[in-house]
Amino acid sequence: MMFCSSIRGPAPSLVFSSISMAKAISGDRKVSPGKFLAWLRLVAIGLLIIAMARPQWGNTKTEVEASGIDILLAVDVSGSMQAMDFELKGRNVDRLTVVKAVVKKFIKERPNDRIGLVAFAGRPYMVCPLTLDHDWLQLRLDSLQTG
């Protein structure tokens, strides 16, 4: 037996290891993984909200030289505009569809005029203020519905 122990070398000084020294060095954890993930989620949501707001830096000023007039169009969107008593491109359509087509043609023929849009069905409401951005005006016109 002594022969075997001498081959293995001297006996280790620590029979069992202890992690008490490592715990003392590391200290207490101040932020648990759950709290860290919660904060990380809040930061991610905050950054997502900021990104959706599309922040823009600097001021850009665009001056447009144009001579034209200001035109404010009023469109009826009451229930009576649902009547199918017009024909457009060979098919029966409601009155509001015809009004939209006529207004779009009118807008195309007035490139230098500021045009706005008010809709009413009992009470008026502003759909689009006076603008030279006719593409946006047409988008707002397309969004009109009866009722």
From TrEMBL:
<keyword id="KW-0472">Membrane</keyword>
<dbReference type="InterPro" id="IPR002035">
    <property type="entry name" value="VWF_A"/>
</dbReference>
<keyword id="KW-1003">Cell membrane</keyword>
<protein>
    <submittedName>
        <fullName>von Willebrand factor type A domain-containing protein</fullName>
    </submittedName>
</protein>
<keyword id="KW-0812">Transmembrane</keyword>
<dbReference type="InterPro" id="IPR036465">
    <property type="entry name" value="vWFA_dom_sf"/>
</dbReference>
<keyword id="KW-1133">Transmembrane helix</keyword>
<dbReference type="Pfam" id="PF13519">
    <property type="entry name" value="VWA_2"/>
</dbReference>
<feature type="domain" description="VWFA">
    <location>
        <begin position="71"/>
        <end position="145"/>
    </location>
</feature>
<dbReference type="InterPro" id="IPR050768">
    <property type="entry name" value="UPF0353/GerABKA_families"/>
</dbReference>
